Give the backbone structure.
Amino acid sequence: MALEKPARTGLTLMLCGFAALCEGIDLQAAGLAAAGISAEFKPAPDQLGTFFGASTFGLLLGAIIGGRLADSFGRKWVLVASVGLFGLFSLCTPVAWSIESLTWARFLTGLGLGGALPLLVALASEVSSGQRKSANVALVYAATPLGGGLASLLSLLIVTDRWRWLFFVGGLLPLLLCPLMAVGLQESIKFQRLTPAAAGGGEFAVKRGSFRAVFSQDRAGSTLLLWASFFFALLLLYLLLNWLPTLMVMRGLSHAQASAAQIGFNVGGAAAAVVVGWLLETRARNIAYATTYLLLPILLVLAAKSPADATLLTGVVFVLGCGTMAGQACLYTIAPSTYPFAIRGIGVGAAIAFGRIGSVVGPKLGGYLKSAGHPPAQLLMDILPIVIVGSICALVLKSMRDRRVPT
């Protein structure tokens, strides 16, 4: 017996949330396994950097390809295939025999990860009612940092030479989830209605999956601002994810305390994403959006200037995670509304893909600043102008989208 629409929508959102949780585990698995990989394969620094960058390059390509395919063949099946792909190649990672084979496995894993995230966002938006779109998208996205927190917790429970377990967990869970998604996911009703006969006008007159269309009909300004916002947001996020534990140890925390602070960063971020998503559906939505981006530079300064006390620094990192992930959630909720349905997959996918360039630049920038001898406080202050520019881009984007919001 078929589920009623509200129940099917709820099941779809739950499955999307579980997929985002798996994505969060896989996204941070490589960084958390780095010590074990280095001890076993003894890669040169450039080889290890290539290993880290391989999944990001795959993420960039996967976001564009997955978004394009989803506009042509539907959100559901491309999403299921993407989740299966990153699960399969995550399982291949621990059986790799060299740093080169590890790098290829991470690249292929990244293709699936990149294809899944924009489709999770698009599908969550399209199956939700108008009063719940932002809240549901934020709820699904919040599972990603929560998955990162679970991966960090798992890394604390295993010894360094058991690094393969991170990838076993990161691969097995999405593969178990795939058949449930194939049965339980609700395809976007708009996609089902998007037939050639219906493409005569309105948003359906836009060619499906057209990359050029994201710049047409006065969308160029919004597209460029969205890309810039994702770029700066992911630059900050990945710089913090990769360098915060090291910076905290340099400030006097033990490795265990730094790992606990990193878990707090992820958990606080997940909670903040849910709260912001809910606020974006209320009359306080404009205040919530503006407050998020106005507070983010202040939180960064607070993290830089706080005294080297373990309890205080852990609390500051938790709050910084709240601000950083809340900003991400705002972008993920606004991205689907930037484009009409027929190009939403490629529109969101391209924005996330451009943001992935920031996720490459962020860790490298942190490494450059640290190599230049900048202490932790100065390093965080160095990136303050970047955070301010990113906040301005996001605020201008919101102002533009309030004047024109497609369905």
